[in-house]
Amino acid sequence: xxxxxxxxxxxxxxxxxxxxxxxxxxxxxxxxxxxxxxxxxxxxxxxxxxxxxxxxxxxxxxxxxxxxxxxxxxxxxxxxxxxxxxxxxxxxxxxxxxxxxxxxxxxxxxxxxxxxxxxxxxxxxxxxxxxxxxxxxxxxxxxxxxxxxxxxxxxxxxxxxxxxxxxxxxxxxxxxxxxxxxxxxxxxxxxxxxxxxxxxxxxxxxxxxxxxxxxxxxxxxxxxxxxxxxxxxxxxxxxxxxxxxxxxxxxxxxxxxxxxxxx
Amino acid sequence: xxxxxxxxxxxxxxxxxxxxxxxxxxxxxxxxxxxxxxxxxxxxxxxxxxxxxxxxxxxxxxxxxxxxxxxxxxxxxxxxxxxxxxxxxxxxxxxxxxxxxxxxxxxxxxxxxxxxxxxxxxxxxxxxxxxxxxxxxxxxxxxxxxxxxxxxxxxxxxxxxxxxxxxxxxxxxxxxxxxxxxxxxxxxxxxxxxxxxxxxxxxxxxxxxxxxxxxxxxxxxxxxxxxxxxxxxxxxxxxxxxxxxxxxxxxxxxxxxxxxxxxxxxxxxxxxxxxxxxxxxxxxxxxxxxxxxxxxxxxxxxxxxxxxxxxxxxxxxxxxxxxxxxxxxxxxxxxxxxxxxxxxxxxxxxxxxxxxxxxxxxxxxxxxxxxxxxxxxxxxxxxxxxxxxxxxxxxxxxxxxxxxxxxxxxxxxxxxxxxxxxxxxxxxxxxxxxxxxxxxxxxxxxxxxxxxxxxxxxxxxxxxxxxxxxxxxxxxxxxxxxxxxxxxxxxxxxxxxxxxxxxxxxxxxxxxxxxxxxxxxxxxxxxxxxxxxxxxxxxxxxxxxxxxxxxxxxxxxxxxxxxxxxxxxxxxxxxxxxxxxxxxxxxxxxxxxxxxxxxxxxxxxxxxxxxxxxxxxxxxxxxxxxxxxxxxxxxxxxxxxxxxxxxxxxxxxxxxxxxxxxxxxxxxxxxxxxxxxxxxxxxxxxxxxxxxxxxxxxxxxxxxxxxxxxxxxxxxxxxxxxxxxxxxxxxxxxxxxxxxxxxxxxxxxxxxxxxxxxxxxxxxxxxxxxxxxxxxxxxxxxxxxxxxx
Lengths: 263, 789
Fold this sequence. Notes:
Strand content of chain A: 15-25%
CATH topology of the largest domain in chain A: Uridine Diphospho-n-acetylenolpyruvylglucosamine Reductase, domain 3
Number of helices of chain B: 19
Oligomer: heterodimer
Number of domains of chain B: 3
Largest sheet of chain B: 7 strands, mixed
CATH superfamily of the largest domain in chain B: Aldehyde oxidase/xanthine dehydrogenase, molybdopterin binding domain
Mean pLDDT of chain B: 97
CATH architecture of the largest domain in chain B: 2-Layer Sandwich
Largest sheet of chain A: 5 strands, antiparallel
Radius of gyration of chain B: 27 Å
CATH class of the largest domain in chain A: Alpha Beta
Mean pLDDT of chain A: 97
Shape of chain B: globular
Radius of gyration of chain A: 18 Å
Number of domains of chain A: 3
Structural class of chain A: alpha+beta
Helix content of chain B: 25-40%
CATH class of the largest domain in chain B: Alpha Beta
Helix content of chain A: 25-40%
CATH architecture of the largest domain in chain A: 2-Layer Sandwich
């Protein structure tokens, strides 16, 4: 780890100010950033911890019925507190990493990092969530822009995520055997006006919507409706753990299972 | 009723109190006053010529004490290889040099190029980034068969090729085996890979070198399974330090699995640098360094052919194996694919003709050496896979085919040069059948199918050679060391006992099981006895722990030393009791005169030995301390039968191990709880190999599985609750305890069991898959199913 300055502001305004300095880096739960620093793969001048900002923590329901989760809320908190209001999201959060990861890692950190195998991006995209930052609101369809790439500007902080709660939803994850990140993760969310399906882990472009499946499921919400729909292995990740074709196949399997498990 | 102490008692592991409460003393816990830290700058290319190393800027940086490169070690020996294999033509293997720091070339990713000694680790790492390296990358040699083609790039320019040796065993059987296969009623052929593994002990390797100018003595604290072997190799062959000036300490060690047997460059470096810098020098491997510098295991590519007659009797077996040595010869690497592998190819079967060919190959990869089982898992995997494939081809029950070919009479001389002293393969198979509830399998399969899963049953037998090894025999086979062990039993004045042993405990529970033996022999409480291990200045010259040898070899030495103690104690007791020595009996810690009520207690005798006021000084010396060395007459041959049931998800290829039954014959057992634990651990590692672990390189020699993000270790939820049994016991005939060893069995017997079950599951779903290479990961199982759809 290279030397860096460390700040832990208690207000959003102070955090934004601290992040305006050259080469300053926001630190959420640190579950990606700290290992990166330890391997000397990053050398920020300053780390600005967001864990001291009380306003960024916690879960509530908005007037329009959306579940609003502070950007600094840990996975463990989401798993616990969203269990009744949004069980699919609670399941997702409760199966990220291990207890240590879940008690440090935050939803804002995960979405800002946009790891192509992270779980949360699929939930945000499948629910057309709104990502609220210190300066604006961004719709999930505009937010995710490819592996480790988002609409966030330099120094912009995800302060809250607003999830429209679906009628039914499920998250199905097939784990990569070593890391247990999602090799394929499918978040399926059914609303009155249609079904959205978002896939993480599989694509070289990061999280994506499987629109053919959405169309089929919106017309007929059953696993059978997917029988004529398939995904190409083209553009899917091929690595030690599986080919693009295998991942494409798993997307179909996990989507069917998500439909069956939806509640 | 199980006993509550002594031999056969499930005594609780006393060492676990300190391990589980954070009170262990591991090498990284050792900090020597004034110590400096070393960081190794390692090659990030697999193969290259070092044109220059400019350390000027780095040497001037804050905290840097000295930077070493290969030139600093030109006057020093290289890391020695402890075993010389002779090839099929009677020639010695090709043996390249293995410098402590790279000289002229780098030969694998992770090869150490420079070592930066600094006041702190961070300063050493900062300086490493300022070293200017000029390396011309060369084509990497990765694939073993390509490495042996004419014109292949050579890993070592001074060798004639990348072939270490071409070994035939038994060479005289070659033609007869060829004929038998040509004329067989049926031949089953299988090509397979036994993949490369990383041992991954929980504790990474650590070395602390210290030098005393006051008495010109060097001390190395290191994570080793055999401190005396390290002292001998490093002192005599690398650094030229006489034994009496070199102390090697291996304190608590957090798992070895073979990978901590070997002498490593970092140990020699820290010892050397401590003197050169006149500062203690400490190195602790990061997990990333462990992946690219700990000796790897396995890595065989094999073709095996099994010949059977019309009655399904095995008539001949022929194998051809390519064994990866990596870039250099690690300490015992040449012995693993040969003497620890070819000699096991008979397995549990009376196959009359066997020929084993092994071509050991140099590649630009991390050196490969012994890993839990070492050669025996490779032998068992190919044999038991080909037997299972034969059963399927012939349409016979896999258990019946095995049973029909079992060796049933002992001693049994195999066609691969070893003699099994004892065994009863039928007994372990019967145990297995009882526990596995084979008759209930059909119902369990039907239940799985209801849930869309394919259930498979796999069975497997194994034999292994443990208690390594008769020194005169291994000497003929090329070992450059003896393989006896030693123990000193030091009885203290008040009767407590310290036993100094050459064996080293790094998870095996010796601190509990060894005292059980002495307690049994003397009839005293186990708590009066401690063992001392892991410090060359305290223990006799023993060879350490590997090859499931500790209780069979070192335990036998301890028995011999304790017998000497008893003999002397009886003389003392006879004097105290004014009786004839021949009339003295020892029972429950009391020496008594046969047929009388006269007795003295153990403590009275030990006190007399050290306060010899009333003592036969004219006949015997005071004190009560004896040493014995024990050299085994033969290997020991644990054996067993394993079964498992797996479920395969046909939609994803995911394999789940639902049940695992292990019926082992370990001979006599000192502590059944520890034995079960050893089997459990071995099974977890074997299941890891079968389903999860894979050390993979790309074609450029880059390590693809260089961290836990890509190297899949088994976790608790990957393994089932095991059902283990070791009640079928045929005691070893040639050691005093009748013990055989249990440390490696689980890792040897489980991989083929799992793969046999996966193949069975797939067949039940109509997938005619004949083999899947390990690990049978979801993607591989899915691909295999697709290939036959």
